[in-house]
Every structure is written in C-alpha cells, then in structure tokens.
Amino acid sequence: MKRGTFIRKLKNEGCVLVRHGGKHDVYRNPKSGKQATVPRHSEIADRLCRIITHQLGLPENILS
C-alpha cells in the first residue's frame, strides 16, 4: 500500500502524528492511547499495515 494512502486512512480514524523520526514517524490513536511507528518508505507491505493498525487499536477493515 502506498504510504500516503495508509496515512490518510489512519488520520480518517482519528490518529495524529506525534513526532517525526529519522526513518519512521510516530502516530497515536487518542481514543485508545496507543501509538505505533510508521516507516517512511513509499510502499508499506500489507502485512505491516495490518500490524500497525492492530498496534493502534484500529479495526482491520479500514485497510479495504
């Protein structure tokens, strides 16, 4: 999945950017209080997208 598409889906679910890192950005879900790192690659593997959504406490169906 393209990184921009994935970030847009996270933001639509209410996740916010906490900070920029060297190779990753950190996003937080204010509803659950959980946070996860998102790599700054142009393409993010679908499996990694599912792992990140799980870490943030989001439903997997947002990736469809």
TrEMBL record:
One function term, GO molecular function aspect: hydrolase activity
Record flagged with keyword Oxidoreductase: no
Superkingdom, natural source: Bacteria
Keywords attached to this entry: Endonuclease, Hydrolase, Nuclease, RNA-binding, Stress response, Toxin-antitoxin system
Spans traversing the lipid bilayer: none
Gene3D superfamilies, alphabetized: Hypothetical protein
Family: Belongs to the HicA mRNA interferase family.
Protein name: YcfA family protein
Organism, scientific name: Leptospirillum ferrodiazotrophum
